[in-house]
Amino acid sequence: MPEVAHVNIFVEDQNKALTFYTEKLGFEVAEDLDFGGVRWLTLKGNRQGNFHIILAAATTPEDILLIGKQGGSCPLLGFESPDLDNDYETMKAKGVQFLGSPESHSWGKSVILKDLYGNMIYMVESPR
User: 0.70 cut: is pTM over it?
Assistant: First the structure.
């Protein structure tokens, strides 16, 4: 069976998105290549295998309309954190916008954050 390898996030400015995802959320650059004027920019988590986030420049009117709205009313991505409280405090200190603070549930803790364009991202810490 195939595995998910990439998710595409349309962005207005790849450099600003790169700064946000690396400096504020802690992702690492996996690839940053030029394919004839098209920048292929992918990120990976530091504990992650082959799954990458593509920061794609929105170029068509349809793409531009999706910036910040790709998940609709639901989070676009889900992040797993080994220490949600620490990640929350670290990211908040770096200016990341959260929709509330971490909440405890029977299955773990969770919180929702927004990226620089308003895409919601669900972050969870599950007990091991």
Answer: yes
Which CATH number is 48's domain given?
Answer: 3.10.180.10
C-alpha distances in angstroms, 65 versus 1, 7, 53? 33, 18, 19
Tell me the C-alpha distance between 27 and 91, whole Å: 12
Please state the domain count of the chain.
1
Asked whether residue 66 is assigned to any structural domain, the reply reads: yes
The predicted model gives 51-73 an average pLDDT of 95
Sequence-separated (6 or more) residues with CB below 8 Å from residue 53: 6, 7, 9, 21, 27, 42, 43, 44, 77
Characterize the bridge pairing of strands 28-35 and 103-105: unpaired
39 within 8 A of 57, measured Cβ to Cβ? yes
Q: Is position 14 within any domain?
A: yes
